[in-house]
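Quick entry between incubations.
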Amino acid sequence: MRVLRLATAAAALLISATFAQAQIKIGSVLSVTGPASFLGDPEKKTLEMYVADINAKGGINGKKIELIVYDDGGDPNNARTFATRLIEQDKVDALLAGSTTATTMAIIPLAEEAGVPLINFAGAVQAVSPVKKWNFKTPHTDLMACEKIFEDMKKRNITKIAIIAGADAFGKSMRDQCMTVIGKYGIEVLHEETYQPRDNDMTAQLTNIKGKPGVQAVLNPGFGQGPAIVTRNYKQLGINVPLYHGHGVASKSFIELATPAAAEGVRLPAAALLVAEKLPDSDPQKKVVVDYKKTYEAKTGQPVSGFGGHAYDGLMILVEAMKRAGGADKAKVRDEIEKTKGFWGTGGVVNMKPDDHLGLDLSAFKMLEIKNGDWTIVN
Amino acid sequence: MPEFLQFLFSGLTIGAIYALVALGFTLIYNASDVINFAQGEFVMLGGMVTFFAAAAGVPLPLAALLAIVVAVAVGLLLHRFAIEPARGASAVTLIIITIGASILLRGVAAVVFDKNFHSFPPFAGTTPWNVGGATILPQSVIVLLGAGIIVVAMWALMSMTLIGKAMVATAANKLAAQLTGINTRAIIGLSFAVSAAIGAIGGILVTPITLTSYDVGTLLALKGFAAAMLGGMGHPFGAVVGGLIVGLLESFGAGYISSAYKDAIAFIVILAVLFFMPNGLFGKASAERV
Amino acid sequence: MMAALLQSRYGIVLLIAAGIVLIPLVTPSTFYLRVAILVYIFSIAVVGLNLLMGFAGQVSLGHAGFFGIGAYAVAVGPTHFGIPSWASLLIGVALAGLIAYVVGRPILKLRGHYLAVATLGMGILIAMVFTNEARFTGGPDGMPVPRLVLFDWVVRGVTTWYWVSGVSLVIAAAIAVNLIASPTGRALRAIHDSETASHVLGIDVARYKLVVFVISAVYAAVAGAYLALFDALVTPVTAGFLRSIEFVTMAVLGGLGSILGSVVGAAVLVVLPQMLTVFHDYEHIALGAIMIVFMIFLPAGIVPSLGRLFGRKFS
Amino acid sequence: MSALAVDNIGIGFGGLTALDGVSFRVGNGEIFAVIGPNGAGKTTLFNIVSGLYAPSKGRVQLGVDDVTGLEPHRLAQRGLSRTFQNLQIFFRMTAAENVMVGRHLHESRGILAQLLALPSVWRQNRATRAKADELLAFVGLSAFADRPAGELPYGALKKLEIARALATEPRLLLLDEPAAGCNPVETQEVDAVIQKIAATGVSVVLVEHDMKLVMKISNRIHVLNQGRTLAEGSAAEVRSNPAVIEAYLGRRKGEADAQG
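Done. Structure below.
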């Protein structure tokens, strides 16, 4: 009898505790496993880390956040199912969801239909354009990465290039976006190759590029281990024109995987996060990126990547908006997100507008070069 | 000509990995009629355990040894707790069990290790050698040599030792082997252990070239399975040849035809071969007794 | 009564139909309906695959290819060629059947694991076309799928799709049951046990293997088209190798040679990941372990093994 | 016109000659036995006649038609059926269903009608089942009709194969060791069934090791040894043929020498 009473008391305590704490529910669907786990994994870790941190500091206006994260494994069908579950079952107040473009495109219509604010972490431009009422996005688009690269090429008088792209969503999307603006910079593509997402040898493709006369630089849109192997094979074959990667490899581990010797001189556009300590103290972004980098690396023991940063930015924009809205009212929060101005995140300064739910400009990107096994900023 | 050589080197290196996976498939299949779709996970364990042990301060050779021991232990556990209890179940039931094991092992690796890519330094320097205008990495030569040594060692084991002969006998006819006093259960367990060791060694050798992560196993299992079937299931020599052919097809396909469809080229050739040789290149037609 | 129901020819179909009617009465939110719809859609594909694997004894590791053809048909047809969705669906299903017919002839000569690797190759080739022909398919990111419109009726919304997929599953199961109890069904089961004896008794073994391969491809294509229309988008993951493995796992887990098993297998593999989310990072470990345990203790699949267990108990 | 004419048949496997220059004719309604020591090529002969193997030389004729190299299901259409030495039972089906499969050629096989289970299909299923029951009664297996074939005793399976083969309504029936493994009672039952079949005008070709059975029921006997014809004739003729005696006894002597 006593046991029963104790149990009831404990249960009651538990229930009241959950009620007291979970006053704001944030739902997240990320590709924590599967081919895009390099995106979803750091995103999940970042969200969990900072939600705990915010709750420890008293939450949002005194209300604690309950974070629910589901893993879609990179399958858009799963993403849709879990997003439905978050909206209808868990009744979340806002969504921070979608690691890849494909999964994000599966989630957006649900958020629109249910009227739930959504901040996504997809790369491609279609994840934010055309503008949808409830949908926002934090990562730079791949189009911006392309423009940054082509600007740099133009400065170095490079006009004829070859492309080797990953045949995955990330590589393919960036390659396509690059082709839409390449004409503006007067650059011509002499040769194109692709590799499959899990390929572990690209010498065949690179041999063909090497054999193409007139190529002044090679561009490799891709993510994961692919670009690291491209870089190694590039060095092995002794190709000596500049090599550019996309922003998909922007993490310290890339240099290790590619080996510092092979990565020497490789350039890529990336957010300031990678070079946090190297930013001048006057840079208004320095504090946020240094803090995030330190926190992430201390908590996870793994090198920071830009992708976790997107999740950080999304969470902070949402939290700020909720603070301003004085609660989790969906419509009010949505309006406040849209009013985000001068927010310094890991991706740069965010200035949202009703017709721009991304709010980043090209200045958010830095052109980096790898020298002596470390990132340096190209001026 | 330099292109041709380059494609050849690249194809042989990749092919050697497929060959080792295919060899692992073949060993287990011969002993137990099980197609072990967790074979790729042994390769993953080889690379991942070595990396994390080395990162924890264990000297690389010792780390590699540890990785082999871990893989062999996992192979034995797999046999003891997943295959052995399902004795007598149909072939597809056993396949689903190995698929389950593969999901489980990947899950464990993601939790115990992490989900990032890893690599460790090659064993013999990073400066590529120039051969006829093409380049080859010392590590590629090590991979090929290693694969060759494993194949020869397997051959010696099978034909010269008593245990090897017991394995061959078990493969040929389990019942007859039992009747001659061979402990077929132990032999099947042994085949899992040897398979796991081969996979792990493969993983250790190739990781400096191909990198590794918790989920490299799936695709390797897929390609290794295709290679084993191309060679003729149950035929160790066929498995090795099948692996090398798949690797060469991919690299020549990517080099001369289309990098977007290089996997397709490999599979089209496999389909064509099976069309004319329904038991693979070296497999024997099994006549049904009626 | 339950036993009698399960033994009669259409008992299983009635049981499935009853389940479909009852589930909406007890579900608290449309999320559960969405999960149920996915179960029904995958069940259609798995029932078809079970006709091939469970009854005729021919393995296929490439059925996601046919699933993908159905899915991409309802995406590409309306978007690029202005063909109405319902017509695109029919074209996609016909195309899957045609490809199965053409490809099936040579590859069904192969046996066992060789057939497995050949169908695997076929599936991968199909998926590769979806990934690489980005002009039509949107490449790795996939493409949106317009809503299905039937005589001015826009098929949308979870409730609508619940009934569309549910009724379709009942029809698919009934057709499968019809087939099994027909001369063709007997021929297929005979081929499973002894090709030689079937052949000698006058059964054109090659033709019947082809027939069931085409039928199972049609089932997969219908299911694929439904999933694409319901999700309103399609990506190469839909047609990927892992999906083929998933189908086979569903069929084996539920029980080869059991129509009810196909539905149970699909239900387990759709619902289980939803339940396992409580394990967070240990989700996949749990999934793998559960698969192993199921197969060890119910080696013939959930439905046949449990059936045998209870059959022994009662008799 | 004979029911079956085999003309100068030959086949080899990997350089090993299994059959060479075998010829014989089987008349309508005749019981014709093929005997010979193990490895003489009897089952290979059956496999050629029933279309499972294509001969490398020679000709097989059913009635007036040359059927050499036709696929088994085509031969079945022309009235040939057989049983197997190593049982080829459909173990996952019931005994009645096994026999129903044998009715395949006599059923209409429109796939659409079957998918929709039109009334015609139901009617046909009932007719097929009735015929199967009739055949099971003929071989004495009525009691097993709805039992899974896997649960039947060995002797019953032998008879089930005969009933299944009869379901195709053959004009020529090949029986490969129908009494092998049967006890004396079962052998007698098989004996009776074969005679009943022959009485209906079906020609029976029989491979059998039970010499008592063979000598008793066969009209003519064809003796094979190491792939070649040794003798042919009535039971009495064969029994007294010195070559046959030599083959059976001499072979044993040879084996004994090899072992010694």
